[in-house]
């Protein structure tokens, strides 16, 4: 697997848990054939970190946004600040998406109205800058599609991270133009929904990710996950689709090129 071109569409490289191992992590990624990592910001205070990582490392690209778990940071100025951060990045930074954004009504139901408002603003920012979005939606798919309708967004460029919803939701997401992205758990035979979605989605609408440092593939349980471990996701998708890892890796590479605007 070492020579497969690997693409991690969703990584939290600014997570403090990774800070002590970042130099080794990047060295290992190069050895293992990682071509691209999309570093997602979850909080306001990660925007600078992911932008400057993308300026310092050829393989790192950045997504700026605010995750539904961290909307305590989201106030009347946040949308303008996000526009400013995207419009005037640090020298050499490669900001190619808005993320991680979305709705999570499983564990954060109390902030429903704020989540909807923050997501609406961030979707409009993505539209205005013509950037794809990195979506985190959990137990909120009907509300998500209703919000798109309210905003008159019929097609949306981007991906649904850690996809594990039903086939009907997969169909609706694909119909809206979204890609489905899978991480470590898809390699676990018990992840029935994620595996069913990976089987259902056309290969040319699939991305691979790690969500590092979380959600390791089964063979890395007990460790912080790292972007190079995305090989396990490629292998799992190959097994599910009865394709070769080479074909899956090459198609994911092509999907990445088509989805993200490359400088
Ligand atoms: Zn994430």
From TrEMBL:
The keyword Metal-binding applies. The keyword Zinc does not apply. SUPFAM superfamilies: Metallo-dependent hydrolases. GO terms for molecular function: hydrolase activity, acting on ester bonds; metal ion binding. InterPro entries: Metal_Hydrolase, TatD-like. A divalent metal cation 2 binds at residues 136, 161. PANTHER family: D-AMINOACYL-TRNA DEACYLASE. This is TatD DNase family protein. It comes from Oligosphaera ethanolica.
